[in-house]
Design goal:
378 residues; six-stranded parallel sheet; 15% strand; globular; binds uridine-diphosphate-N-acetylglucosamine
């Protein structure tokens, strides 16, 4: 069997890692080898956004790198489709595997479906109910073109049923007869596997003068937060206020950095620089991020992945978005949705900083999602 996986952006890399590990195990034990071809679209290209993740997560060098880079959504997606179509025609895989909700995921879905190559979507069914988010559009399109859909949560599985997918469909599966499954979160596999390694290999706390449980970890990169000046301002004002009480460390996404350096945001950047307890650091490697997450008092983020990791490590989380596709976390009360609202961020901080951190019920499976997906495909 020949599989092709397409990745391109940071969150895709996290999801491919446990899957590749699983295929390697299968190939050692089974008679019939799975041939796995890894394609990097080049959506993320900075070393800190790409190469460091391949290294830390033991992902092999991609067989192909399309080197597409940044661009408007239309241009970026179109160039990826063109490159992927050519590649799929020459490689002719049995299945194309796509992960999450990035533009690389969307491009793979369009290229493969036009060539009648069956698609496997890992992290299917999640909906944020906000069609202004490019990721939401990407998810819907990819799901509805897929033959095998793996939802990480029960609510995601239910979303698929609500949109007309039939849970009683039987193999052989196809785009006209798709199979839907609920398994658990593939990134949980990673976190369990790498958490101990981070303890020995990461110096990020010492490098930044951080003491365990004495700082807040923040990340901001969603266009809704970075590209709307009032939102960016509210979030950073809140972080500055919080930093008077507890140190705040923020690994900065290139998009956010570029915007803070623009002439419109000069005043804000000056203010940030003046607040000694708000620490902006370059994007960090996967192991460093795990180490930061494991030792923080609380997380403030607009990332889907970081929201989940926050829960894996029993940390309360303030979500800088008006909605989330990870509603299970909200239902436990361990995370709060606040949008880019200064007051709401501070109220959530006061509530969550004193939260009982002991009881985080198991809601994301057993850390064996990659095994389940691999077996189901076979
Ligand atoms: C993408 C994903 C998002 C994911 C995020 C994680 C889409 C639609 N969104 O958003 O779901 O949470 O990755 O990071 O695919 N840039 C660099 N260097 C890089 C990569 C990006 O400087 O290596 C800058 C460029 O200015 C680029 C901007 O960041 O225009 C945005 O990058 P892009 O890949 O388009 O989207 P992300 O915001 O990273």
């Amino acid at each position: 069997m020949k599989l092709i996986s397409v990745v391109g952006a940071r969150p895709n890399f996290m999801k491919i890692a446990p899957f590749i590990k699983e295929i390697n195990t299968y190939n050692i034990l089974a008679k019939d080898r799975i041939e796995h071809v890894l394609v990097h679209t080049g959506q993320h290209y900075d070393n800190r956004m790409s190469k460091t993740f391949f290294k830390a997560l033991n992902i092999p060098k991609p067989n192909y790198n399309l080197k597409i880079g940044s661009g408007s959504h239309g241009k970026q997606t179109a160039r990826m489709i063109e490159g992927l179509e050519e590649l799929l025609l020459s490689e002719n895989p049995d299945y194309l595997l796509l992960y999450g909700d990035t533009n690389s995921t969307l491009s793979g879905a369009i290229a493969a479906s036009k060539l009648n190559i069956p698609i496997v979507h890992v992290e299917a069914g999640l909906r944020s109910n906000n069609r202004k988010m490019p990721e939401k559009i990407n998810r819907i399109v990819c799901d509805h073109l897929s033959s095998l859909l793996f939802s990480p949560t029960q609510s995601g599985f239910q979303n698929l049923i609500n949109e007309g997918f039939n849970s009683t469909n039987q193999a052989p599966f196809s785009a006209d007869n798709p199979g839907i499954f609920h398994y658990g979160v593939i990134m949980y596999d990673n976190s369990l596997h790498f958490a101990d390694l981070a303890l020995n290999k990461s110096n990020i706390l010492a490098e930044n003068g951080l003491a365990s449980n004495k700082y807040v970890l923040a990340t901001i990169h969603r266009d809704h937060n970075t590209d709307i000046p009032e939102n960016l301002m509210s979030i950073f004002e809140a972080l500055i206020t919080i930093s008077r009480q507890l140190k705040v460390v923020l690994p900065i996404h290139p998009r956010t950095k570029k915007i803070l350096q623009s002439t419109e945001q000069k005043k804000l950047l000056r203010k940030i620089k003046k607040s000694n307890n708000l620490l902006l650091i370059p994007p960090v490697s996967f192991l460093d991020m795990i180490q930061l997450e494991k030792n923080t008092s609380l997380i403030i983020t607009d990332s889907g992945g970081v929201q989940k990791e926050s829960y894996f490590f029993n940390k309360p989380c303030i979500v800088l978005r008006p909605e989330t596709e990870w509603i299970e976390i909200l239902e436990t009360g361990k995370a709060k949705l606040v949008s880019a609202d200064y007051k709401k961020i501070l109220i959530a901080f006061d509530t969550l900083i004193n939260l009982d951190k002991s009881e985080f019920p198991h809601i994301f499976g057993d850390g064996k999602a990659a095994e389940f997906i691999c077996e189901t495909i076979i």
